[in-house]
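Task: sequence design from structure.
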């Protein structure tokens, strides 16, 4: 029985060492040299990752100042939303102001 196991192991090791890959492995220098230079993998061709450009929105300090403003505390929820939208617009940012009856698209309307 031992002889059979030894022969089987020798046969497997002989076949494993003789087989060669046709392409380089993922972590070899040949793989990275053959890879075309371009956008990061995971993005479609022609698209730029959002992480590649700097943040253009407001800073955390600016957002905190707007949302924790003393004058907004005494307003009703509807007025507070309008205050936030106005404060963001004054700074040049688009705040999605959504309230009942505002910016609703009517379906089926004829122009």
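Answer:
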């Amino acid at each position: 029985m031992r002889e059979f196991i030894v022969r089987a192991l020798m046969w497997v090791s002989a076949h494993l060492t003789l087989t060669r890959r046709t392409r380089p492995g993922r972590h070899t220098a040949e793989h990275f040299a053959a890879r075309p230079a371009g956008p990061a993998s995971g993005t479609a061709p022609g698209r730029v990752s959002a992480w590649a450009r700097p943040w253009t929105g407001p800073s955390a300090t600016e957002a905190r100042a707007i949302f924790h403003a003393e004058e907004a505390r005494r307003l009703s929820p509807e007025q507070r939303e309008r205050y936030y939208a106005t404060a963001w617009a004054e700074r040049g940012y688009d705040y999605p102001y959504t309230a009942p009856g505002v910016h609703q698209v009517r379906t089926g309307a004829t122009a």
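The longest helix spans residues 2-18.
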